[in-house]
Design goal:
Elements: H1 2-17, E1 18-27, E2 32-41, E3 52-57, H2 60-76, E4 84-88, H3 96-99, H4 112-131, E5 134-143, H5 145-149, E6 163-167, H6 175-185, E7 190-199, H7 202-215, E8 223-234, H8 237-250, H9 259-266, H10 273-288, H11 296-309, H12 314-325, H13 331-342, H14 346-357, H15 367-378
Parallel strand pairs: 3-4, 3-5, 5-6, 6-7, 7-8
Antiparallel strand pairs: 1-2, 2-4
Helix pairs in contact: 1-2, 2-8, 6-7, 11-12, 12-13, 13-14, 14-15
Length: about 400
Amino acid sequence: MKKIFLFLICISVSKVLCQKTTEMIASSKLNEEREITIGLPMFYDKNPEKKYPLLILLDGDYLFDPFQGALNYGAYWDDLPEVIIIGINQNKNNEREADCATDNANGLPIDKGEKFYEFIGLELIPYIQKKYRTTPFRIIAGHDVTAGFLNSYLYKDQPLFNAYISLSPELKSGMIEQISERLAFIEQPIFYYQSTADGDIKKEQKNIKDLDHLANQIKKPSLNYRFDDFKESNHYSLVLKSIPNALYQIFDAYKPISSSEFLDKIVVLQSGYVDYLNNKYDVLEKTLNIKMPIRINDFKAIEAAILKNKAYAEFQTLAELAKKNYPKTMLSDYHLAMMYEKTNDLKKAAKAYLSAFQKDEIGSLTKNMMFDKSEELKSLIPSKDAKVGEQTEPIIEQPIEEKKTE
Protein backbone atom coordinates (compact mmCIF):
# COMPACT_ATOMS: atom_id res chain seq x y z
CA MET A 1 0.00 0.00 0.00
CA LYS A 2 2.88 2.34 0.84
CA LYS A 3 4.51 1.80 -2.58
CA ILE A 4 1.22 2.38 -4.41
CA PHE A 5 0.75 5.64 -2.49
CA LEU A 6 4.30 6.66 -3.48
CA PHE A 7 3.45 6.03 -7.11
CA LEU A 8 0.39 8.27 -6.89
CA ILE A 9 2.76 11.01 -5.70
CA CYS A 10 5.19 10.15 -8.50
CA ILE A 11 2.51 10.44 -11.17
CA SER A 12 1.42 13.80 -9.76
CA VAL A 13 5.03 15.01 -9.81
CA SER A 14 5.41 13.80 -13.41
CA LYS A 15 2.65 16.12 -14.61
CA VAL A 16 4.75 19.06 -13.45
CA LEU A 17 8.20 17.85 -14.41
CA CYS A 18 7.69 16.46 -17.91
CA GLN A 19 6.31 17.58 -21.25
CA LYS A 20 3.87 14.97 -22.60
CA THR A 21 2.47 14.91 -26.13
CA THR A 22 0.80 12.37 -28.41
CA GLU A 23 1.31 12.08 -32.16
CA MET A 24 0.75 9.73 -35.08
CA ILE A 25 3.74 8.31 -36.92
CA ALA A 26 3.42 6.80 -40.39
CA SER A 27 4.97 3.35 -40.84
CA SER A 28 5.77 1.84 -44.22
CA LYS A 29 6.68 -1.42 -42.48
CA LEU A 30 3.25 -1.72 -40.86
CA ASN A 31 1.45 0.06 -43.71
CA GLU A 32 -0.45 2.15 -41.17
CA GLU A 33 -0.14 5.04 -38.73
CA ARG A 34 0.69 4.31 -35.10
CA GLU A 35 0.05 6.46 -32.06
CA ILE A 36 2.99 7.23 -29.79
CA THR A 37 3.22 9.23 -26.57
CA ILE A 38 6.33 11.35 -26.07
CA GLY A 39 7.63 12.50 -22.71
CA LEU A 40 10.36 15.14 -22.68
CA PRO A 41 12.17 16.46 -19.59
CA MET A 42 10.70 19.71 -18.28
CA PHE A 43 13.73 21.84 -19.23
CA TYR A 44 14.47 20.06 -22.52
CA ASP A 45 14.13 23.30 -24.53
CA LYS A 46 16.31 25.27 -22.11
CA ASN A 47 19.27 22.87 -22.39
CA PRO A 48 19.94 22.75 -26.15
CA GLU A 49 23.26 20.90 -25.81
CA LYS A 50 22.08 18.21 -23.40
CA LYS A 51 21.32 14.67 -24.61
CA TYR A 52 19.16 12.11 -22.85
CA PRO A 53 18.84 8.30 -22.62
CA LEU A 54 15.90 6.87 -24.57
CA LEU A 55 13.21 4.63 -23.06
CA ILE A 56 10.90 2.77 -25.46
CA LEU A 57 7.74 1.53 -23.75
CA LEU A 58 5.63 -1.21 -25.26
CA ASP A 59 2.09 -1.10 -23.84
CA GLY A 60 2.58 2.65 -23.68
CA ASP A 61 -1.16 3.04 -23.01
CA TYR A 62 -0.80 2.02 -19.38
CA LEU A 63 2.94 1.85 -18.71
CA PHE A 64 3.73 5.44 -19.70
CA ASP A 65 2.40 7.22 -16.60
CA PRO A 66 3.95 4.94 -13.94
CA PHE A 67 7.33 4.97 -15.71
CA GLN A 68 7.17 8.73 -16.19
CA GLY A 69 6.20 9.22 -12.56
CA ALA A 70 9.06 7.09 -11.21
CA LEU A 71 11.64 8.70 -13.50
CA ASN A 72 10.60 12.24 -12.71
CA TYR A 73 10.41 11.59 -8.99
CA GLY A 74 13.94 10.15 -9.10
CA ALA A 75 15.17 13.05 -11.25
CA TYR A 76 13.70 15.55 -8.77
CA TRP A 77 16.04 14.14 -6.09
CA ASP A 78 18.88 13.65 -8.60
CA ASP A 79 18.82 9.88 -8.05
CA LEU A 80 17.80 9.14 -11.65
CA PRO A 81 18.73 10.99 -14.85
CA GLU A 82 16.21 12.76 -17.04
CA VAL A 83 15.05 10.46 -19.84
CA ILE A 84 13.14 10.82 -23.11
CA ILE A 85 10.20 8.41 -22.95
CA ILE A 86 8.43 7.05 -26.03
CA GLY A 87 5.31 4.99 -25.38
CA ILE A 88 3.90 2.90 -28.23
CA ASN A 89 0.15 2.72 -27.68
CA GLN A 90 -1.08 -0.82 -28.46
CA ASN A 91 -4.52 -1.24 -26.90
CA LYS A 92 -6.55 0.98 -29.23
CA ASN A 93 -7.51 -1.86 -31.59
CA ASN A 94 -6.17 -4.69 -29.43
CA GLU A 95 -2.94 -4.46 -31.41
CA ARG A 96 -0.57 -5.92 -28.84
CA GLU A 97 -1.19 -9.58 -29.66
CA ALA A 98 -0.64 -9.08 -33.41
CA ASP A 99 2.29 -6.71 -32.81
CA CYS A 100 4.01 -9.34 -30.69
CA ALA A 101 3.38 -12.44 -32.77
CA THR A 102 6.34 -14.81 -32.32
CA ASP A 103 7.24 -18.36 -33.24
CA ASN A 104 6.15 -20.85 -30.60
CA ALA A 105 9.43 -22.73 -30.78
CA ASN A 106 12.04 -19.96 -30.54
CA GLY A 107 10.19 -16.72 -29.86
CA LEU A 108 11.40 -15.01 -33.05
CA PRO A 109 8.97 -12.46 -34.54
CA ILE A 110 6.63 -13.72 -37.27
CA ASP A 111 3.81 -12.25 -39.38
CA LYS A 112 2.92 -8.76 -38.11
CA GLY A 113 5.32 -9.25 -35.20
CA GLU A 114 8.20 -9.21 -37.68
CA LYS A 115 6.90 -5.96 -39.20
CA PHE A 116 6.42 -4.41 -35.76
CA TYR A 117 9.96 -5.47 -34.84
CA GLU A 118 11.29 -3.64 -37.91
CA PHE A 119 9.04 -0.64 -37.26
CA ILE A 120 10.73 -0.04 -33.89
CA GLY A 121 14.30 -0.57 -35.10
CA LEU A 122 14.18 0.90 -38.60
CA GLU A 123 11.53 3.61 -38.34
CA LEU A 124 10.61 4.69 -34.81
CA ILE A 125 14.07 4.95 -33.25
CA PRO A 126 15.65 6.74 -36.28
CA TYR A 127 12.68 9.14 -36.26
CA ILE A 128 13.15 9.91 -32.54
CA GLN A 129 16.93 10.25 -32.90
CA LYS A 130 16.52 12.74 -35.73
CA LYS A 131 13.86 14.80 -33.96
CA TYR A 132 15.18 14.73 -30.38
CA ARG A 133 18.55 14.80 -28.62
CA THR A 134 19.20 11.24 -27.44
CA THR A 135 22.31 9.44 -26.22
CA PRO A 136 23.19 5.99 -27.60
CA PHE A 137 21.88 4.40 -24.38
CA ARG A 138 18.47 2.81 -25.02
CA ILE A 139 16.02 0.92 -22.78
CA ILE A 140 12.97 -1.14 -23.74
CA ALA A 141 10.21 -2.25 -21.38
CA GLY A 142 7.02 -4.29 -21.62
CA HIS A 143 4.46 -6.34 -19.69
CA ASP A 144 3.48 -10.02 -20.21
CA VAL A 145 3.15 -10.54 -24.01
CA THR A 146 5.14 -7.39 -24.87
CA ALA A 147 7.74 -8.31 -22.23
CA GLY A 148 8.27 -11.63 -23.95
CA PHE A 149 8.49 -9.93 -27.35
CA LEU A 150 11.19 -7.43 -26.33
CA ASN A 151 13.64 -10.29 -25.89
CA SER A 152 13.75 -10.56 -29.70
CA TYR A 153 16.15 -7.62 -29.72
CA LEU A 154 18.70 -9.73 -27.82
CA TYR A 155 19.02 -12.02 -30.83
CA LYS A 156 20.89 -9.47 -32.93
CA ASP A 157 24.70 -9.63 -33.04
CA GLN A 158 24.72 -6.03 -31.80
CA PRO A 159 21.57 -5.67 -29.66
CA LEU A 160 19.57 -2.53 -30.37
CA PHE A 161 18.94 -1.87 -26.68
CA ASN A 162 21.33 -1.65 -23.73
CA ALA A 163 18.70 -2.42 -21.07
CA TYR A 164 15.64 -4.69 -20.95
CA ILE A 165 12.80 -4.42 -18.43
CA SER A 166 10.66 -7.55 -18.64
CA LEU A 167 7.61 -7.43 -16.36
CA SER A 168 6.00 -10.86 -15.92
CA PRO A 169 6.96 -11.93 -19.47
CA GLU A 170 5.16 -14.56 -21.53
CA LEU A 171 8.01 -16.83 -22.60
CA LYS A 172 7.52 -19.37 -25.39
CA SER A 173 8.96 -22.85 -24.89
CA GLY A 174 12.28 -22.33 -26.64
CA MET A 175 12.90 -18.83 -25.37
CA ILE A 176 14.20 -19.70 -21.91
CA GLU A 177 17.34 -21.40 -23.16
CA GLN A 178 17.76 -19.02 -26.07
CA ILE A 179 17.60 -15.87 -23.91
CA SER A 180 20.09 -17.26 -21.40
CA GLU A 181 22.43 -18.25 -24.23
CA ARG A 182 22.25 -14.77 -25.71
CA LEU A 183 22.89 -13.13 -22.34
CA ALA A 184 25.96 -15.33 -21.92
CA PHE A 185 27.21 -14.65 -25.45
CA ILE A 186 26.75 -10.89 -25.82
CA GLU A 187 29.96 -8.99 -25.11
CA GLN A 188 28.59 -5.45 -24.81
CA PRO A 189 27.28 -4.36 -21.37
CA ILE A 190 23.65 -5.43 -20.93
CA PHE A 191 21.18 -4.59 -18.15
CA TYR A 192 18.43 -7.17 -17.78
CA TYR A 193 15.55 -7.03 -15.32
CA GLN A 194 12.62 -9.43 -14.94
CA SER A 195 9.96 -9.91 -12.30
CA THR A 196 7.08 -12.08 -11.20
CA ALA A 197 4.93 -12.42 -8.05
CA ASP A 198 3.35 -15.07 -5.87
CA GLY A 199 -0.04 -14.18 -7.39
CA ASP A 200 1.24 -14.15 -10.98
CA ILE A 201 -0.01 -16.49 -13.71
CA LYS A 202 1.36 -19.89 -12.66
CA LYS A 203 2.54 -21.03 -16.09
CA GLU A 204 4.42 -17.80 -16.70
CA GLN A 205 5.75 -17.79 -13.15
CA LYS A 206 7.45 -21.15 -13.70
CA ASN A 207 9.05 -20.09 -17.01
CA ILE A 208 10.31 -16.85 -15.49
CA LYS A 209 11.91 -18.69 -12.57
CA ASP A 210 13.48 -21.20 -14.96
CA LEU A 211 15.05 -18.32 -16.88
CA ASP A 212 16.21 -16.78 -13.60
CA HIS A 213 17.92 -20.06 -12.67
CA LEU A 214 19.86 -20.07 -15.95
CA ALA A 215 20.65 -16.35 -15.84
CA ASN A 216 22.13 -16.65 -12.36
CA GLN A 217 24.68 -19.14 -13.69
CA ILE A 218 26.10 -16.52 -16.05
CA LYS A 219 29.17 -15.00 -14.42
CA LYS A 220 30.40 -12.08 -16.51
CA PRO A 221 30.90 -8.42 -15.56
CA SER A 222 29.16 -7.18 -18.73
CA LEU A 223 25.80 -8.62 -17.60
CA ASN A 224 23.94 -6.62 -14.95
CA TYR A 225 21.03 -8.91 -14.02
CA ARG A 226 18.25 -8.59 -11.46
CA PHE A 227 15.16 -10.66 -10.68
CA ASP A 228 12.30 -9.82 -8.29
CA ASP A 229 9.66 -12.23 -6.99
CA PHE A 230 7.17 -10.07 -5.11
CA LYS A 231 5.06 -11.34 -2.25
CA GLU A 232 1.38 -10.50 -1.84
CA SER A 233 1.24 -9.18 -5.41
CA ASN A 234 -0.44 -10.24 -8.61
CA HIS A 235 0.14 -10.01 -12.35
CA TYR A 236 -0.81 -6.32 -12.38
CA SER A 237 0.30 -4.90 -9.04
CA LEU A 238 3.83 -6.27 -9.55
CA VAL A 239 4.28 -3.64 -12.27
CA LEU A 240 4.18 -0.76 -9.79
CA LYS A 241 6.74 -2.48 -7.57
CA SER A 242 9.01 -3.51 -10.45
CA ILE A 243 9.42 -0.16 -12.17
CA PRO A 244 11.48 1.69 -9.51
CA ASN A 245 13.59 -1.41 -8.84
CA ALA A 246 14.40 -1.78 -12.54
CA LEU A 247 15.22 1.89 -13.01
CA TYR A 248 17.44 2.07 -9.94
CA GLN A 249 19.23 -1.10 -11.08
CA ILE A 250 19.95 0.35 -14.53
CA PHE A 251 20.92 3.81 -13.30
CA ASP A 252 22.74 2.78 -10.13
CA ALA A 253 25.96 4.43 -11.37
CA TYR A 254 24.13 7.75 -11.72
CA LYS A 255 23.27 8.20 -8.05
CA PRO A 256 25.24 10.74 -6.00
CA ILE A 257 27.46 9.44 -3.21
CA SER A 258 25.23 8.32 -0.36
CA SER A 259 26.09 8.09 3.33
CA SER A 260 26.31 4.28 3.07
CA GLU A 261 28.60 4.49 0.03
CA PHE A 262 30.78 6.98 1.88
CA LEU A 263 31.05 4.80 4.99
CA ASP A 264 31.29 1.38 3.33
CA LYS A 265 33.33 2.09 0.20
CA ILE A 266 35.17 5.41 0.42
CA VAL A 267 36.31 6.32 3.90
CA VAL A 268 37.62 2.77 4.47
CA LEU A 269 40.12 3.15 1.60
CA GLN A 270 43.78 3.53 2.50
CA SER A 271 44.27 5.99 -0.38
CA GLY A 272 42.91 6.84 -3.81
CA TYR A 273 39.87 8.89 -2.74
CA VAL A 274 40.06 11.16 -5.79
CA ASP A 275 40.60 8.12 -8.02
CA TYR A 276 37.36 6.69 -6.63
CA LEU A 277 35.51 9.86 -7.62
CA ASN A 278 37.03 9.87 -11.11
CA ASN A 279 36.19 6.21 -11.63
CA LYS A 280 32.59 6.75 -10.51
CA TYR A 281 31.96 9.31 -13.24
CA ASP A 282 34.00 7.39 -15.82
CA VAL A 283 31.71 4.38 -15.32
CA LEU A 284 28.70 6.66 -15.66
CA GLU A 285 29.94 7.91 -19.01
CA LYS A 286 31.08 4.53 -20.35
CA THR A 287 28.08 2.44 -19.31
CA LEU A 288 25.22 4.94 -19.55
CA ASN A 289 26.66 7.46 -22.04
CA ILE A 290 25.94 10.23 -19.54
CA LYS A 291 28.57 12.93 -19.29
CA MET A 292 28.03 15.48 -16.57
CA PRO A 293 30.03 17.67 -14.16
CA ILE A 294 30.91 16.01 -10.88
CA ARG A 295 28.34 16.98 -8.26
CA ILE A 296 29.43 19.50 -5.63
CA ASN A 297 28.22 17.19 -2.87
CA ASP A 298 30.40 14.40 -4.27
CA PHE A 299 33.40 16.74 -4.07
CA LYS A 300 32.44 17.42 -0.45
CA ALA A 301 32.27 13.68 0.30
CA ILE A 302 35.80 13.13 -1.01
CA GLU A 303 36.97 16.19 0.92
CA ALA A 304 35.54 14.66 4.09
CA ALA A 305 37.28 11.33 3.40
CA ILE A 306 40.61 13.08 2.85
CA LEU A 307 40.26 15.01 6.10
CA LYS A 308 39.19 11.96 8.11
CA ASN A 309 42.16 9.91 6.86
CA LYS A 310 44.60 12.86 6.92
CA ALA A 311 45.52 12.20 3.27
CA TYR A 312 46.11 15.91 2.69
CA ALA A 313 48.29 15.45 -0.40
CA GLU A 314 45.20 14.29 -2.30
CA PHE A 315 43.79 17.81 -2.09
CA GLN A 316 46.21 18.69 -4.91
CA THR A 317 44.55 16.18 -7.27
CA LEU A 318 41.10 17.15 -6.05
CA ALA A 319 41.89 20.78 -6.83
CA GLU A 320 42.88 19.85 -10.37
CA LEU A 321 39.62 17.95 -10.80
CA ALA A 322 37.65 20.90 -9.43
CA LYS A 323 39.35 23.27 -11.87
CA LYS A 324 38.40 20.98 -14.75
CA ASN A 325 34.74 20.77 -13.70
CA TYR A 326 34.17 24.27 -12.30
CA PRO A 327 36.95 26.49 -13.70
CA LYS A 328 35.37 29.85 -12.82
CA THR A 329 34.57 29.01 -9.22
CA MET A 330 36.53 29.08 -5.97
CA LEU A 331 36.38 25.30 -5.49
CA SER A 332 39.87 24.54 -6.85
CA ASP A 333 41.60 27.28 -4.83
CA TYR A 334 39.64 26.23 -1.75
CA HIS A 335 40.99 22.68 -1.99
CA LEU A 336 44.55 23.96 -2.42
CA ALA A 337 44.07 26.20 0.59
CA MET A 338 42.88 23.21 2.61
CA MET A 339 46.00 21.26 1.68
CA TYR A 340 48.33 24.10 2.67
CA GLU A 341 46.46 24.80 5.88
CA LYS A 342 46.48 21.16 7.00
CA THR A 343 50.20 20.83 6.23
CA ASN A 344 50.85 24.04 8.21
CA ASP A 345 51.98 26.14 5.25
CA LEU A 346 49.94 29.08 6.48
CA LYS A 347 51.38 31.65 4.10
CA LYS A 348 50.37 29.68 1.00
CA ALA A 349 47.06 28.76 2.59
CA ALA A 350 46.18 32.42 3.21
CA LYS A 351 47.14 33.27 -0.37
CA ALA A 352 45.02 30.43 -1.77
CA TYR A 353 42.00 31.46 0.30
CA LEU A 354 42.41 35.02 -0.96
CA SER A 355 42.60 33.72 -4.53
CA ALA A 356 39.38 31.78 -3.92
CA PHE A 357 37.78 34.99 -2.66
CA GLN A 358 38.19 36.48 -6.14
CA LYS A 359 36.33 33.60 -7.88
CA ASP A 360 32.63 32.76 -8.18
CA GLU A 361 30.87 31.27 -5.17
CA ILE A 362 29.75 27.64 -5.40
CA GLY A 363 27.68 25.40 -3.15
CA SER A 364 28.18 26.40 0.48
CA LEU A 365 31.46 28.21 -0.28
CA THR A 366 31.15 32.00 -0.06
CA LYS A 367 33.42 35.01 -0.54
CA ASN A 368 33.02 35.97 3.11
CA MET A 369 34.17 32.52 4.17
CA MET A 370 37.29 32.70 1.98
CA PHE A 371 38.18 36.24 3.09
CA ASP A 372 37.74 35.44 6.77
CA LYS A 373 39.91 32.31 6.47
CA SER A 374 42.62 34.25 4.69
CA GLU A 375 42.65 36.97 7.35
CA GLU A 376 42.59 34.43 10.16
CA LEU A 377 45.64 32.60 8.79
CA LYS A 378 47.52 35.82 8.08
CA SER A 379 47.22 36.69 11.76
CA LEU A 380 48.91 33.42 12.65
CA ILE A 381 51.92 33.86 10.34
CA PRO A 382 55.10 34.76 12.29
CA SER A 383 56.35 38.25 11.42
CA LYS A 384 59.67 36.91 10.09
CA ASP A 385 57.72 35.18 7.28
CA ALA A 386 55.93 38.37 6.27
CA LYS A 387 56.96 40.31 3.17
CA VAL A 388 58.79 43.58 3.55
CA GLY A 389 56.29 46.35 4.12
CA GLU A 390 53.48 43.93 5.01
CA GLN A 391 51.74 44.77 8.24
CA THR A 392 51.40 41.90 10.65
CA GLU A 393 50.29 41.65 14.22
CA PRO A 394 52.30 39.76 16.82
CA ILE A 395 50.88 36.46 18.00
CA ILE A 396 49.44 36.87 21.46
CA GLU A 397 48.00 34.35 23.84
CA GLN A 398 44.29 34.85 23.31
CA PRO A 399 41.55 33.10 21.32
CA ILE A 400 41.50 33.93 17.62
CA GLU A 401 37.87 35.04 17.78
CA GLU A 402 38.85 37.85 20.16
CA LYS A 403 41.08 39.49 17.57
CA LYS A 404 39.39 42.29 15.73
CA THR A 405 40.15 43.62 12.28
CA GLU A 406 39.20 47.05 11.23
